[in-house]
Amino acid sequence: MYDIIRKKRGHLAIKAQVDIFDVLGSLNAEAQVVNGVPVLAHRAKGTIRAPLPIFGPDVRFYLTKNSNRLFVTGNVLGMYFFGYGNFISTVDTVGFSATKHLNIKPGYKLGSRLNVNNNASTRIGISLTQKWPVVGIEVPF
């Protein structure tokens, strides 16, 4: 994270991170034809661990005027994967300083959207939206 604007009441920064997804996929076919031969049932399963680099703006605002003990943060991070799709993620948290070098940040991941474009020849595409509560620790230095 690099602060573009840093004031007593907060900052505006550019943030880069890598989100790692552990994806499990399965395919069940009840009846199909493979090379002209009818096959009644087929199942396939696979996993992949995919790192997605993302970047974007990050904002922090301190709620108390004379102390940096209570703050809100928000960011919108994403990456365009050229003709293959895009990934957009946003997280908003309320944080408080437990000590000088430890912040606790509970919040909510408002949504992350992974969109992989459909391929005309294979007719495969993915659109995924996730929402969940988050909690984290931050060690400023």
Describe the secondary structure blueprint for this structure.
Layout: E1 2-7, E2 10-29, E3 32-34, E4 37-39, E5 42-62, E6 70-80, E7 85-99, E8 102-119, E9 124-138
Antiparallel strand pairs: 1-2, 2-5, 3-4, 5-6, 6-7, 7-8, 8-9
Summary, kept brief:
By secondary structure, the chain is mostly beta strands.
Describe the structure.
With 141 residues, this protein is mostly beta strands. The protein has one domain. It has strands at 2-7, 10-29, 32-34, 37-39, 42-62, 70-80, 85-99, 102-119, 124-138. The strands form two sheets. The protein has a seven-stranded antiparallel beta sheet with strand order 1-2-5-6-7-8-9, with no helix packed on it. The two termini are 12 Å apart.
